[in-house]
Design a protein that fits this description.
The complex is a heterodimer of chains A (191) and B (117).
Chain A: H1 5-13, H2 20-38, H3 42-58, H4 69-87, H5 89-92, H6 101-112, H7 122-134, H8 137-148, H9 153-160, H10 164-190
Helix pairs in contact in A: 2-3, 2-4, 3-4, 6-7, 8-10, 9-10
Chain B: H1 3-16, H2 27-37, H3 43-74, H4 83-95, H5 97-105, H6 111-116
Classes of the chains: A mainly alpha (191), B mainly alpha (117).
Chain lengths: 191, 117
């Protein structure tokens, strides 16, 4: 029988660094999926995930085992992604580039017949990625966790370390900023 | 155009198309190699580094205060020659205020007890 996460962590803390490798193998897919929500370039994604694992190794002694290791790791991953967004804030503040062909096509379809613009279209995904990139780091984090990953306010407070009222205030602001960005895109194109 | 509906559609699109969870080939080996080259920092070393940084910054602040005190006392205005000495006297009074206060409030030796002895 394979050792549990707790047993592996205990072994790592005793000095057996090799016991950390199975943990990386097991949880890397989830960490990669999380990092890809916040970074577009694959090199950036790999840097984020690498940082998550290095941090988790260095802070492993602070893991108390009260919650599953996965929860602790994902909290670390989200916080690392948030730091990444804040670090790359300047790159984000660039002017709107022209919409790509799939994005324009999807928007045109939505304007003419909203029901025909399906959610699985590539244009819709590109458009939401474009809008998320324009949001501030805190707003992007909130929209991703609350709206896209469908997490509760309490969960978000635990992940981010923010208070529940702060999460609510930031969620309100994030939705407002998102509507503003949407209005900007559609105004440029359709008004 | 209904922006709320557009917003909902786009959020639904993001939910519908989650990011890939693909892991690059031998990624765990890369991390393990990284961990082997950069060992876990020793807490005592970190503490020592923080203390030495603090020592340098405190020394800088001390020099700054010393220099400013020196210039303040040396640059006495012509019309008020006592300013420099007043400043140093004030500083000394402030520093020794607690001692002076203690001297003033210290009870006298109980003469009765001495007489009993």
């Amino acid at each position: 029988m394979a050792p549990s996460d707790a047993e592996r962590i205990a072994a790592v803390l005793k000095g057996d660094a090799a016991s950390f490798e199975p943990l990386i193998t097991k949880y890397s897919p989830r960490v990669f999926a999380t990092a890809r929500r916040y970074a577009r370039r694959e090199s950036e994604v790999e840097d984020i995930v690498q940082e998550v694992w290095l941090k988790s190794y260095q802070k492993l002694s602070s893991f108390r085992g009260e919650a599953p290791f996965e929860h602790w790791l994902m909290r670390l991953a989200v916080r690392t992604c948030y730091d990444f967004l804040r670090g790359h804030q300047r790159n984000r503040e660039t002017a709107f580039t022209e919409l790509t062909a799939p994005e324009t096509e999807w928007l045109d379809r939505f304007v003419t017949a909203p029901s025909s613009a399906t959610e699985d279209a590539a244009g819709a995904k590109l458009l939401i990625d474009r809008i998320l990139e324009k949001l501030s780091p805190a707003n992007r984090l909130i929209i991703t966790l609350l709206e896209i990953e469908d997490r509760s306010v309490k969960e978000i407070a635990q992940i981010t370390g923010w208070s529940i009222p702060l999460v609510k205030v930031r969620a309100f602001r994030a939705r407002a900023e998102m509507r503003k960005q949407l209005a900007k895109i559609t105004k440029d194109k359709y008004l | 155009m209904n922006l709320n509906q557009l917003n909902q559609k786009l959020i639904a699109a993001a939910r519908h198309q989650p990011p890939s969870d693909r892991v690059p080939y031998a990624f765990e080996k890369r991390i393990m190699a990284h961990l082997a080259t950069c060992p876990v920092p020793d807490l005592l070393t970190l503490w020592g580094q923080a203390l030495s940084r603090a020592a340098f910054s405190y020394a800088a602040v001390m020099l700054l205060i010393g220099a400013s005190a020196f210039y303040l006392t040396s640059e006495t205005p012509a019309g008020n020659p006592a300013t420099g000495s007043e400043l140093s006297q004030d500083l000394q009074d402030t520093l020794l205020a607690a001692v002076d206060l203690a001297d003033q409030t210290e009870p006298l030796e109980p003469t009765e007890q001495i007489e009993e002895l």
